[in-house]
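A reminder from the course coordinator: this example appears on the midterm review sheet, so study it carefully.

Given structure:
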């Protein structure tokens, strides 16, 4: 099969989809990366035997098109996440491994090739969660799933079923919907934020089941307000995708680094053509062995942007694969972006928002509100630094994850991003008049005010409480979160230093 100059997209093949039936075979391809338009199929073969295009049909969203009829005038629209079911009429395949190859054209990306191995296995009836491919959010299919739960576990999901919004609103946020998990939401604050985007007094909705948590944050906010507020600064903002390119030698990888630097403008054009909001800020290149690890850095507007940058990075990589013939293998993610994982590189280079909150606390304020003096807190902090260093923790603070997770759940963020977002750098020192300078830097705060779960009704309400909806509001949210984190650090550190920590939990935090 002639695949010269074709972009290899073998990863779009859905492994495990190959099945045989009386009079033919079928398999599936899913558009996982970009919006496209399928205009032509050049060649298809199974186990090296060419397939006549007249014997092949393509089904997309209920529409069936003969492969031989495809043209620029009779194309198939393929939005992101669309599945093509390919049916080939003819002799049924035997059980075992089979090799599938295809070459086709898709606008605006040009010639593409696919090379995959899949297996025909004995079909077995399986016990599956009920689904409706036409509309999986109707009352009927949801009730079928709830009955399925009862049949399997004997549990009636009466509480889970009590939601306050139409299930259809959750489409794109969850699959196999059966209801909602209701997490208590409380208010901390108000807290005075002296930011460049958030300026004023803010109530902070927090979703948690941990007793004393909100009380502790409100206590820290009392200190913050008595000091005139917390100053918050956003130092950097970028989101990454990190593909890796494999070569025959380290020298070829080194030469590739120079090629990327020289052709950055063309990569930027390709990447930014896929998004209205994303901007390619630059590409960091790291070499090891015969591998070139690229970290594409993007600004993403009010979205967290992981999906946005995946799509944009793939478009840029398509240019690379077309132009650089020495590439032997390519993977869209090398684990160098460290999605959902705290990492040293993001501590240094930023992922999401890099935010610093800082405050100067007079000795008399801390003593009056927290019953601990600034000297004690500073000394305690130096000991805690040793503990953090010895333990290998991702930060030297106390509990940044508490505020970030509670606000994330309340406002519809991807809660798993707390693994990265909770990384923190805390610093404190005493001034000559015994005031305490205290700061916390969050180098990888990944949040959004647009997209994901932020548009769901209760989550959007929580964002509205803070005035963090609409265009350009994500930096405001970042500053509020950083200020809240700082308040929580002051509160918990003071409680531990004054020995109030355990007694407070005993008095307020037990579900008696």
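Designed residues:
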């Amino acid at each position: 099969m002639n695949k010269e100059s074709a972009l290899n997209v073998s990863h779009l093949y859905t492994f495990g989809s190959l099945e045989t039936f009386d009079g033919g075979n079928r398999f599936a391809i899913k558009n996982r990366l970009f919006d496209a338009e399928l205009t032509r199929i050049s060649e298809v073969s199974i186990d090296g035997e060419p397939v006549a295009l007249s014997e092949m049909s393509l089904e997309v969203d209920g529409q069936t098109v003969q492969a031989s009829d495809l043209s620029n005038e009779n194309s198939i629209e393929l939005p992101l996440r669309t599945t093509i079911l390919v049916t080939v009429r003819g002799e049924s395949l035997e059980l075992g491994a089979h090799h599938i190859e295809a070459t086709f054209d898709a606008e605006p990306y040009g010639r593409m090739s696919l090379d995959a191995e899949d297996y025909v296995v004995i079909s077995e009836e399986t016990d599956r969660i009920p689904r409706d491919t036409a509309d999986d959010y109707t009352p009927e299919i949801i009730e079928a799933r709830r009955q399925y739960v009862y049949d399997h576990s004997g549990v009636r999901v009466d509480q889970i079923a009590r939601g306050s919004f139409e299930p259809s609103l959750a489409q794109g946020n969850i699959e196999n919907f059966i209801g909602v998990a209701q997490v208590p939401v409380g208010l901390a604050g108000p807290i005075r934020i002296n930011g460049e985007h958030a300026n004023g007094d803010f109530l902070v909705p927090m979703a948690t089941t941990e007793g004393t948590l909100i009380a502790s944050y409100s206590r820290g906010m009392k200190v913050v307000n008595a000091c005139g507020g917390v100053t918050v600064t956003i130092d950097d903002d970028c989101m990454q995708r990190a593909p890796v390119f494999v070569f025959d030698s380290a020298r070829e990888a080194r030469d590739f680094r120079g090629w990327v630097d020289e052709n950055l403008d063309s990569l930027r054009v390709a990447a930014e053509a896929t998004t209205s909001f994303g901007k390619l800020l630059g590409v960091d290149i790291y070499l090891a062995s015969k591998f070139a690890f690229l970290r594409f850095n993007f600004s993403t507007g009010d979205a967290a942007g992981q999906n946005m940058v995946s799509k944009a990075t793939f478009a840029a990589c398509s240019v690379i694969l077309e132009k650089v013939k020495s590439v032997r293998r390519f993977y869209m993610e090398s684990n160098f972006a460290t999605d959902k994982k705290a990492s040293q590189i993001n501590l240094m280079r930023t992922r999401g928002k890099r935010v610093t909150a800082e405050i100067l606390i007079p000795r008399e304020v801390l003593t009056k509100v927290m019953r601990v003096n600034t000297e004690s807190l500073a000394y305690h902090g130096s000991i805690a630094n040793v503990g953090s260093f010895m333990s290998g923790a991702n930060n030297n603070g106390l509990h940044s994850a508490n505020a970030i997770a509670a606000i994330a759940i309340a406002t519809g963020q991807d809660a798993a991003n707390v693994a990265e977002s909770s990384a923190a750098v805390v610093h404190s020192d005493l001034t000559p008049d015994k005031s305490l300078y205290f700061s916390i830097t969050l180098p990888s705060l990944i949040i959004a005010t647009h997209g994901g779960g932020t548009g769901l009704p209760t989550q959007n309400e929580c964002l509205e409480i803070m005035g963090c909806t609409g265009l350009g509001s994500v930096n405001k949210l970042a500053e509020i979160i950083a200020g809240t984190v700082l308040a929580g650090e002051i509160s918990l550190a003071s409680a531990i230093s004054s020995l109030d920590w355990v007694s407070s939990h005993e008095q307020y935090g037990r579900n008696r």
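The domain at 186-236+343-505 is CATH 3.90.770.10 (3-hydroxy-3-methylglutaryl-coenzyme A Reductase; Chain A, domain 2). Residues 59 and 85 are 5 Å apart (CA to CA).
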